[in-house]
Design brief:
This protein is an alpha+beta fold. The protein has 3 helices and 5 strands; from the N terminus they run ααβββββα.
Length: about 160
């Protein structure tokens, strides 16, 4: 397991706050408001809820009823990573993918990119710190799915 400010722990609290997954299209298609450092409790709820779902790889805050630009995904080591205010800045190598979503029924064919450059904020010592990251493969696909949620776009 990774240590330091980049690592989030699923077991940080003894009492998990597992939230119900939202399927309300009106809420899910509303673009999210910017997240702040005060939204750290929402991130923990996302981590707890993600851990409770079988075969889940990422969740955005609007999927648990909070219209803030926040997402959590599981990295290659299966550790949760939080992205505050993620934005896709560059995307290369498009491909078609079939995706499912806990907030929608069925599968959808979407265009994703195998290589992406993303800006986001990370919570470090109670403050949001701007970050940039390059992601590829499955990790890039999950992050694109989460960014779509933050923009109010459903698959």
């Amino acid at each position: 397991p990774r240590e330091g400010p980049h690592a989030l722990r699923r077991d940080r609290k003894a009492t998990a706050m597992i939230k119900e997954i939202v399927k309300d299209e009106a809420l899910l298609t509303t673009p999210c408001e910017p997240a702040t450092a005060e939204d750290a409790a929402v991130v923990q709820d996302l981590i707890d809820t993600l851990a409770s779902l079988e075969d889940a790889a990422c969740l955005a805050a609007n999927q648990i009823g909070v219209t803030k630009a926040l997402a959590v995904y599981l990295d290659e080591a299966e550790e949760p990573r939080a992205l505050y205010n993620p934005k896709l800045k560059q995307a290369l190598r498009p491909y078609k993918a079939l995706e499912t979503c806990f907030s929608c029924d069925g599968e959808a064919k979407v265009t994703r990119f195998d290589w992406i450059n993303v800006t986001y904020d990370e919570l470090v010592d109670g403050q949001l710190v701007p970050r940039k990251g390059k992601f590829t493969g499955w990790e890039a696909q999950m992050i694109q799915h989460a960014i779509d949620h933050c923009k109010g776009k459903l698959i």
